[in-house]
UniProtKB/TrEMBL annotation:
<feature type="domain" description="PhnB-like">
    <location>
        <begin position="3"/>
        <end position="129"/>
    </location>
</feature>
<protein>
    <submittedName>
        <fullName>3-demethylubiquinone-9 3-methyltransferase domain protein, putative</fullName>
    </submittedName>
</protein>
<dbReference type="InterPro" id="IPR028973">
    <property type="entry name" value="PhnB-like"/>
</dbReference>
<keyword id="KW-0830">Ubiquinone</keyword>
<dbReference type="GO" id="GO:0008168">
    <property type="term" value="F:methyltransferase activity"/>
</dbReference>
<keyword id="KW-0808">Transferase</keyword>
<dbReference type="Pfam" id="PF06983">
    <property type="entry name" value="3-dmu-9_3-mt"/>
</dbReference>
<dbReference type="InterPro" id="IPR029068">
    <property type="entry name" value="Glyas_Bleomycin-R_OHBP_Dase"/>
</dbReference>
<keyword id="KW-0489">Methyltransferase</keyword>
<dbReference type="GO" id="GO:0032259">
    <property type="term" value="P:methylation"/>
</dbReference>
Length: 140
């Protein structure tokens, strides 16, 4: 069984998934626009928005779509958790996610992690970047 994040956007899905694929070394598997048959609730001017997108990332899949304008809700009560095993790489990823977004918790050492930080990226997606301490005992 797999649990994969599915993210919703307001017209930036393609840009966001390409950004995540580039930043995280992933591969775009799908970017399917609504098109004329995709969704009757999608205005004609937004038919090029993404109905379903998928990025393969080292052992998991990150999916997303653009919500019809009247159905979008900003994410609350969750974060996409990203585990990065190298502290330098964790810092680099965190900085990129913060660019144009906002920091919730600065990247720092914690009792469970060599580096940990929380941010909301420029697309409105909340992230937790974790570089676990070997003593933390969390499975990979």
């Amino acid at each position: 069984m797999n649990v994969n994040p599915y993210l919703f956007f307001q017209g930036q899905c393609e840009e966001a998934l390409r950004f995540y694929a580039d930043l995280l070394g992933g591969e775009i598997l799908a970017l399917l626009p609504y098109g004329p048959e995709g969704c009757q609730d999608m205005p004609e001017a937004k038919q090029d928005w993404i109905m379903h997108g998928c990025v393969k990332l080292d052992g998991t899949v990150l999916m997303g779509s653009d919500s019809p304008p009247d159905r979008y809700q900003a994410p609350t009560g969750l974060s996409v958790s990203l585990e990065v095993n190298d502290p330098g790489q964790a810092e680099k990823v965190f900085e990129a996610l913060c660019d144009g977004g906002s920091v919730t918790m600065p990247m720092e050492e914690t009792f469970w992690a060599l580096r940990f930080g929380m941010a909301t990226d420029r697309f409105g997606i909340p992230w937790m970047v974790n570089c676990p301490s070997p003593e933390a005992g969390c499975p990979e």
